[in-house]
Amino acid sequence: MKRGTTVYLYELAWILPSIAIPVGMLAALVVTAFGAGIHLPGVEGRVVPTKVAETPPFDRPGVVEIAPGRYEARLVAQIWSFTPSEIRVPAGSTVTFVVTSRDVVHGLLIHGKANVMLLPGQVARVTTRFDRPGEYPMLCHEYCGLAHHTMWGKVIVEPRS
Amino acid sequence: MSRAPENRLTGAYLTVALVALFGGVVTGVVQALEHAGINLYPALSPLIRSYYHGLSLHGVLNVLVWTTFFICGFLQFITARALGTPLAHPRFAWVTFWLMTGGLVLAAIPLVGNAATVMFTFYPPMKAHWAFYVGLTLVVVGTWLVTLELALTWRAWRATHPDARTPLAAFMSLVTFAMWTIASLGIAAEMLFMMIPWSLGLVAGTDALLARALFWFTGHPIVYFWLLPAYVSWYTLVPRQAGGTLFSEPLARVSFILFLVLSTPLGFHHQFTDPGIHEGWKLVHAFLTFAVFFPSLLTFFNVVASLESGARARGGKGWVAWFAKLPWGDPSLAAQVLAMILFAFGGIGGLVNASFNMNLLVHNTAWIPGHLHLTVGTAVTLSFMGITYWLVPYLSGRALWSRWLALAQVWLWFVGMIVFSNALHRLGLMGMPRRTMIGASAYIQPEWKAALPLVGAGGTVLFLSALLYFLNLVLTLVASRAPAPAAPEFATYAEGTSGTSAILDRWRPWLVLTLVMIAIAYGPTLVRLVATTPFDAPGLRVW
Fold first, then answer.
1. How confident is the model at residue A33 (pLDDT cuts 50, 70, 90)?
2. pLDDT digits (tens, 9 = 90+) for B198-208
């Protein structure tokens, strides 16, 4: 009887924090994510993978200034390159990447700035800010075939004149 | 020499599993060396045609074949042993084994022949030879038949033991296969309705997002399918191997029931960065992933408390110092305790992966294989190695060839994995992509250069450890003369905790709850995708 009670108390002393710890971490997570305005890619619409070249905005890939200091970078991913493979924006810009794939699954990784899957058929949209001038490698981070490791580009952030 | 039918069956599964593991470690070390700047692929052609061919082999052999075949062999053995009855239909169990092995051979032909260099995740529209998909589907169907065999065996036992509680090890084995059978419906649907008709040319197009959603429906719970058999050993055998008792039997059942209910409805945390799934559902899956942390914490507590009881019975003292008093000279126990230690870090990393926002830093970076090698590569694999240190001698009737070699192997794996996995985690945090032939890329960043050689060094130590492992097993089979010691008995429970309530030994309520949870978490998204997806992506061979 004694021993059973002790086990029960130990169990309780562990179970309660075991509930409190994940709940606490989750609360911290939700507060920091929403507090910092971090969003995950959501439902942005479809595009027919075989007709990407004729479908706006992917018929004219490139960077467009949509408002002062705000840019939209329209990219197309295909084996084994991004079109365009180099984009230039001034420091302090907010850039929304609007990207899709024309063939297989690709990814877009700009370390610390953007991380999104590029699925044929889906439009991906992610917004980030570039404050410091410099070159930011833009890597495909999903295996996409024999020359996957050659698929990359650059975001060149130019100092404001 | 034991010749019970399930012993030979387990031996057959184990043989396939170990051959796969050998292929997996040989292809693995070549990848690790590539990251360190030593490219052996030109020398290996035409056997291994590219980095990605080797990587596909490594993934399929290690995470799909080694795990699945080991688990089917081990849990059928454990269930029969725990129930004290033979398998209900041994001939059917053998048919299942040959079906799975046949499926494996069918899938292996294009895989080895470089016609299925699509990784173990085989995301379409990358298109492999149809035999790859059909073969893997047969393996999955085989696992369902194992579930059926276990269920029929349990029913036969129940008929003669109407009032007894199901023995813990059998209950856990059944929960593992019940969970897996439900979870594998995702990959089965992907294969039967998408990949197989498409690869056979019966339909022209496919869809990347729906395939990924179905894949990850199975793809996260599959890690619990790998992990729970290690837990079966940690809960029901390791306490006794440590010289102690299981701390709490009811708590062990509760944690397994929670794994049944919570393992599946959380797969979107693998798709946080996928476009085409609502952010709200991703958040729900993040919540549920944190919920499954709860039974993991229960397991941590219960298993460590059980180890402590063993160490204290052996004269261990103090809050922490008792740890040194565990029977470290037993390679089976040492392997599993070291696996637990690294798994703690795997679990913490898993919480980072599941975190809505932190995932953005690590998704598809080298952090992920770093994490996977702590979980499936250590918690699961090193535990399974530890199990084979008593299971292979038991099945073959020959004592382990060398206990010292086994201990050296176990510690080398532990040390090698710390170096290897730590380097990959750090490289991931520095933005290095995973599944990429880094040495051949033009974008190696200056800050990666210190850690890349450590990937090669850690991988080499792991490879040496694996060689010692296979050497010891082969010598056990051909050169060992001493008879095998008795297999470990199941752990008894600490006094006063054996009063399991009846609800913890029932199936229907928990299975219903599982299906309801899945319907809530997955239903709306899957229905929307199935109803609106146009299947307009043609297939490509890109390797």
1. confident
2. 999 999 999 99
pLDDT of amino acid A1: 39
Q: Which residue, among B463, B457, B381, B423, has the nearest Cα to B29 in the 3D structure?
A: B463
Q: What angle do CA B451, B457, B459 make, to 5 degrees?
A: 105
Nearest to B273 among A44, A115, A146 (CB): A115
Alpha-carbon gap: A127 to the closest alpha carbon of chain B (Å): 13
Closest CA to B532 of B282, B265, B207, B213: B207
Subunit contact B436:A143, Cβ cutoff 8 A: yes
Give A130→chain B minimum CA distance, Å. Answer: 16
- Sort strands A106-110 and A114-118 into parallel, antiparallel or unpaired: antiparallel
C-alpha distance from residue A35 to each of A29, A82, B298 (Å): 10, 33, 32
Contact B542 A30 (CB under 8 A): no
The whole-number pLDDT of residue B2 equals 47
CB–CB contact B538 A50 (8 Å): yes
CATH code of the domain containing B158: 1.20.210.10
Q: Are B271 and B212 in contact (CB under 8 A)?
A: yes
Interface of B with A in 429-448 (CB under 8 A): 430-431, 433-438, 440-443, 445
CB of B496 within 8 Å of a chain A CB? The answer is yes
Where in the sequence is the domain holding B188, given as residue range(s)? 5-538
Q: DSSP letters of B232-288?
A: HHHHHTHHHHTTS-BS-HHHHHHHHHHHHHHSSTTGGGG-TT-TTS-HHHHHHHHHH
B382 to A160, B23, B87, B378: CA distances (angstroms): 55, 17, 27, 5
Nearest CA in chain A to B444: A137
Structure-token pair, residue B187:
């990959």
- Interface contact A115-B275, CB threshold 8 A: no
- Name, in order, each residue with C-beta under 8 angstroms of A92's C-beta and a sequence gap of 6 or more: A69, A129, A130, A131, A160
Could B494 and A149 be called an inter-chain contact, meaning their C-beta atoms sit closer than 8 Å?
no
How close, in Å, is residue B535 to chain A by CA atoms?
Answer: 9
Bridge partners, A109 (sequence order): A115, A139
Q: Judging by beta carbons within 10 Å of its beta carbon (0-12, 13-18, 19+), is residue B305 exposed, middle or buried? A: buried
A120 touches chain B (CB under 8 A): yes
Interface test with B, best of A43, A135, A149, A155 (most B CBs within 10 A): A149
Q: Given the DSSP bridges, would you call strands A81-83 and A70-78 parallel, antiparallel or unpaired?
A: antiparallel
**Residues of B in Cβ contact (< 8 Å) with A1:** 496
Any domain includes B543: no
From the number of C-beta atoms within 10 Å of its C-beta (0-12, 13-18, 19+), residue B247 rates as buried
Q: What is the pLDDT of residue B499?
A: 60
Query: Which conformational region is residue B119 in: left (phi greater than 0), alpha (psi within -120 to 50 degrees), or beta?
Result: left
Nearest CA-CA distance, residue A44 and chain B, Å: 6
| φ, ψ at B205 (rounded to 5°) | -125, 165
Does residue B90 register a pLDDT over 50? yes
Alpha-carbon distance B136 to B141, whole Å?
9
A62 SS3 class: strand
CA distance B194 to B537: 12
Cβ separation of A18 and B436 shorter than 8 Å? no
pLDDT, one tens digit per residue, over B123-151 is 999 999 999 999 999 999 999 999 999 99
Enter the ipTM. Answer: 0.94
- CB-CB neighbors (< 8 A) of A154 in chain B: none
The number of distinct structural domains making up chain B is: 1
Alpha helices in B113-237 (DSSP H): 130-160, 168-183, 185-189, 196-199, 208-219, 221-236
User: In chain A, whose CA is at the least distance from the CA of B428?
Assistant: A111
